[in-house]
Amino acid sequence: MKRKSLLLAVDLYGCPNRCLHCWLGHMPNRVMEADADRWIVDQFRPYFDSISFFSWLREPDFCPDYRERWERDKRLSVNAVPPRFELASFWRLVRDPDYAQFLKDVGVGCVQLSFFGMETTTDRYIGRRGGFRELLRATELLLENGIRPRWQAFVNEENKEEIVSLLEFSEELALKRRCEAIGGAFRFFVHAGSCDGENRKLYPIRIQKDHIPAPLIPYYLNYPSLKTEAELCEAWREHEDHVELSQQDTLVLFVDNHYDLFFNYTHMRPEWRIGNLKTDPIEELIRRIEAKDTPALRSAGEISLGELVRRYGAPDSRRAFEAEDYQNYLLNTHLERQTQRRSET
Ligand code: SF4
Q1: Exposure winner among 1, 114, 157, 308, fewest CB in 10 A?
Q2: CA pair distance 245, 272, nearest whole angstrom
Q3: Is residue 45 part of a domain?
């Protein structure tokens, strides 16, 4: 039976960065087989009315022939044109003189760039020296080409004062005025990110809500709905429902560079794996997708949110979370403990 639309993103080429906040989790780069893209789309074709195909799920345009690649992504898509989003490769922007023009040609009007403080800290969080300077150069190149940069800053206890300096630095660069000059607004926003993937390791230094510097509050994403861990524990302590992962109209599936298949919920760890496109029959994978039958989602249905809080919550913690991120954090803690227990027996 044919069902709704599919957005299918495949890690065909990898990523030049190793960000300490990466919600997907770090994976080795591997260029997949030349015909992997068509083969993967063909597996799903009988089951969906439309498929938007993306040849990347980590870094967009991280292949030298990105222009042809984009055309091929469009050709492989079924009854759909894949959207471009406000994302691009700053790695490529500073290395390839034609790339900014390509972004304009495909209609990208704004590009998000991620910072973690000033130079040394940003380089360390991106995982390579020169990252901060590349972000600044990318900002200039975007503006020169009539594309607005948008600065996203990840804040924690370690870098909170540097993020204030970064905000001031963006003001010194007159980015607001310069974006307005090309017909749009400059946006600077701050958040702590989810607590998945590599960012889980930053839980000990997650920003405490009372420690968010005052100058950053107007720029903090969804600040009115931000809670402390203590508030969420208190609210959910007796909750009998289970963690529900966000439902979207369009199904989004990720394929890693070894053909493992995942929903786009939280990180790409084994317990979240739906199966493998090469070794599991596609009929069975579709059944698991429709039934949400993965080890993680089965576990989520076997424990209430209240029990997760009672077992793994920190009722005295002032760390800042959005509700959905904290539910995922609790569930992933439970899954890790289950895996640990199994390995010990
Ligand atoms: S956050 Fe994005 S750019 Fe950074 S390592 Fe992960 S996929 Fe790559």
Answers
A1: 1
A2: 12
A3: yes
Structural domain of residue 117, as residue ranges?
84-191
Structure tokens at 333: 């803690």
Distance 14 CA to ligand 1 centre (A): 9
**DSSP letter for each residue of 198-241:** GGGGGGGGPPBGGGS-GGGGGGBTTGGG-EEHHHHHHHHTT--S
Question: Among 282, 301, 323, which residue terminates a domain?
Answer: 282
Tokens of 102: 């390509």
CA of 225 to the centre of ligand 1 (A): 26
| Tokens representing residue 88 in the block | 């691009």
What pLDDT, on a 0 to 100 scale, did the predictor assign at position 161?
98
pLDDT at 184: 94
> What pLDDT does residue 3 have?
63
Query: Do residues 76 and 127 share a domain?
Result: no
In a domain, residue 304? The reply is: no
Phi, psi of 109 (to 5 degrees): -105, -10
Per the domain annotation, does 138 fall within a domain? yes
The amino acid at 322? E
Q: Is the same domain home to 124 and 151? A: yes
Residue nearest to atom 2 of ligand 1 (CA): 58
123: in domain: yes
Report the number of distinct structural domains present in the chain. 2
Ligand 1 lining (C-beta closer than 6 Å)? 15, 17-19, 22, 24, 58-59
Can you give the pLDDT at residue 343?
A: 86
Length of the chain in terms of residues written: 345
pTM of the complete model? 0.94
10-residue mean pLDDT profile of the chain (345 residues): values are 83 96 92 95 96 96 96 98 95 97 96 98 97 98 97 98 98 97 96 95 98 98 98 97 81 97 93 97 97 94 97 98 96 94 85
Cα(118) to centroid(ligand 1), Å = 18
Based on the fold, state whether residues 177 and 256 are members of the same structural domain.
no
Atom number, ligand 1, closest to the C-alpha of residue 16: 8
So what's the pLDDT on residue 126?
97
Residues 173 and 88 both lie in one domain: yes
Q: Find the 144 Cα to ligand 1 centroid distance in Å.
A: 25
Q: Whose CA is nearest to atom 1 of ligand 1?
A: 22
